[in-house]
Amino acid sequence: MTDSRHMARYWDERARENAEYFVDNRLDYKSGAYGGDDGDDFWSKGEKDFDVLLETLDAPALGSDDTVLDIGCGVGRLSRAAAARVGRVHALDVSAEMLTRAKKNLADVPNVSFHLGDGDSLGAIGDDQIDVVVSLVVFQHIPDPEITYGYVREIGRVLKPGGWAAFQVSNDAEIHQREYPTPSLLQRVAGRLRGTMPKGQDDPAWRGSAVDLDRLRQAAADGGASIERLEGAGTQYCLVLLRAGA
Q1: Any coiled-coil ranges, and where (predicted)?
Q2: Torsion of CA 168, 174, 176, 181, to 10 degrees
């Protein structure tokens, strides 16, 4: 098991290395640009990803008075998208370095509050305080699925009665066990000196883990919630709509 202190250190290092790439590795590591002809930049792509998450799950409409919790906010991309639609956003991350960048990026967004997480709970958030929880490409990087189940129980705790969550988990164990081509020492050194090769991709905090969907359902129930919809079961991008009990 990789402890929360290791995860915090790992993501602090990745934030200092190339924060945007490690938030969205569809970016070119060196140029920071997307391939293809879509013309999207980092922030507009995040807005689209947020819409896809909600639309794929047929999630309820966000309300202008809603309070949203963004778990694993990184540099603030989903938090910015949510803040334009709701009353208040709580942005939480285990990495102090990511939060520093998020605060700078969202300095012009007054309805976002920032919280440093402890790596295995939502202790910064009180019971029944949140209308909506969102999280995207975060839980798949957690090395121990037991931590993810703990977060799901915590989501049930912080949601108001009838509140809901839309989030992504991995349900494909092979993805996390896959062997990647190993560059030679010379290639690694040359690539890192040129700033063309990312670091840390063999670390458990990047490789992450898959969840078992029956265990996920039980964790939701233990937190006083239920899973209403699953899309993409059996894949790395399994989307979950959860509802807290009334």
Answers
A1: none
A2: -130
Which two three-digit tokens encode residue 72? Answer: 């694993």
Task: Specify the CATH number of the domain 4-244.
Answer: 3.40.50.150
Q: What is the dihedral of CA 146, 151, 157, 159, to 10 degrees?
A: -150
Confidence (pLDDT) at 134: 98
Residue 126 identity: G
Q: Which amino acid belongs to residue 97?
A: E
- Confidence (pTM): 0.92
Distance CA 72, CA 49 (A): 15
Residue 85 makes CB contacts below 8 A (sequence gap 6+) with 62, 64
Distance CA 122, CA 147 (A): 11
Classified as helix, coil or strand, 65 is coil
The single residue listed with the structure tokens 């977060």 is 151
Distance CA(237)–CA(166), nearest Å, equals: 12
pLDDT at 35: 81
Q: Domain spans of the chain?
A: 4-244
- Edge-to-edge strand order for the sheet containing 112-116? 112-116, 88-93, 67-71, 130-135, 159-169, 238-244, 225-231
**Per-residue pLDDT tens for 196-212?**
789 998 999 999 999 99
Q: Alpha-carbon distance 213 to 130, whole Å?
A: 24
**CA-closest candidate to residue 45, choices 61, 64, 23:** 23
Tell me the pLDDT band of 38, cut-offs 50, 70 and 90: low
Q: What is the residue type of 52?
A: V
pLDDT in tens, 144-200: 999 999 999 999 999 999 999 999 999 999 999 876 555 555 555 545 545 678 999
